[in-house]
Amino acid sequence: MQQTNILRDVREYLLDGRIYLPRDELERFGARLAVDGRGELDDPQANLAALLRLCAARAEDWYSLGLRLIPHLDSRSRACCLAMTGIYRQLLARIPSSPALVNDRRLSLSGPAKARIAVAALARATGGRG
After folding, report:
1. Count of structural domains, the chain
2. Which GO MF terms are attached to this record (predicted)?
């Protein structure tokens, strides 16, 4: 989930003087972290967008690996983990197709969308469908 936070909040972190994307990957992609005069991430060659896609794919792999551990948790813990994972995966899923979504604002889900994910997670964790 932390990788999703890093991708979702890359602009916010940069404005606070923090960079959590690996330096070697930034260099390999020819990406730079900078904001333009409007305070938006400046990525004219879409190098940063390409790096964000790679990081999102890696994060998705980590979610898949982590979810293998869900059956080892008690049902209450399963529900919480499934709900949080569901919310963060929904955020993450939006980044590869539209990396520019993070250029000018913090990406988020609506309250109703979060509620639907939480209800589905509770049902799944307690043996129902979801």
Report:
1. 1
2. transferase activity, transferring alkyl or aryl (other than methyl) groups
